[in-house]
What does this fold into?
Amino acid sequence: MTARRVFISLAGLLIVGTVLTRAQDTASLHFPSDSNCTGPNTCNVLSAVVPNDTMDITVVAAGVPNVKTNPAFTIHLATGDTGPVVAAKAANAICNTAVAIGRPLVRCSGFITGTGGCTDAACCGSATTSTLTLSCLGQDGTGTGFDLSRSSTSDSITISPDGPGANIQNLMSRTHVGNSTGADFQQLVFVQFLFSGTSAQYQLLFTTGQPSPTIVAVNFPAECTDSTSCNNLLANRVRTAFSSTNPSVLQGAQASSRGLDPGLVDPTQSFIEFTPVSSFTRVTGNVTPDREFMIGTGDPPPPVPTLSPLGMAVVAVLILLSGLWLLRRRQPRVE
It folds into this structure.
């Protein structure tokens, strides 16, 4: 093979081997019925008192404006709401928020079991027992955006990227009523407990594929006195339970650098950033009723495009061989 052919072949490998550090992953929020209302594990919302009966969700997806349920479509929860009821309310609120942004920025269409195909606001009233599939795309429905899905009676919602270069940067929830909310690991998971008021327990449940989750908890103010000390204690206990993890405790002001919605992250209080490891797949937060809890999952902000390890290796070889090729061309031919 001539040097020219080697050069062309490696250039082709470079194109294949160049992988940007972005992922087109789905993001899910779960609302398990783990509270005791009429019996064990019968509801997600143990106590909801107006006006602190709200939950808000933000979807940050490429191709469409940020979808923030607050304030127009803040989700109101009621004592005794089950996980599927909370999930249905969340799905409908996200739909209403996206539709309210309006065309041509966002166009939504989908399907509801028992109802059929739907467009825009007609997709936003799905019943708890219905299955909802929804696509919300930019450029009047022809561009990039996200898909939302919720199966019949499911206690979770799933947001997926839709379109070329689509990405779910963040899916976040903040609740004021202490209902459990879980996030599957995508790239990162962010957790913030808002420590205030009288004594309360704040706990995280880590799903590891075992029959029972690993529970890590702190008691405020018996064990810690403020947001930073409590989150540091939580992080240290997570490290003890999962030696391979290294959660970071960050200040609220750093939330914007992670692409998090400042409306859902209190800038005055610290939060925990978890990097996924193989030992667990989901983290769920649970706090005493009438306390606040934020959880989010997603990709980091868009990075400067970089090469994968394969791409970097190909570049190194390509540079070396192209240099040899140029040197060979410059050498005088011996007659």
Observations:
- Residues 20-306 form one domain.
- The chain has two domains: 1-19+307-335, 20-306.
- The radius of gyration is 24 Å.
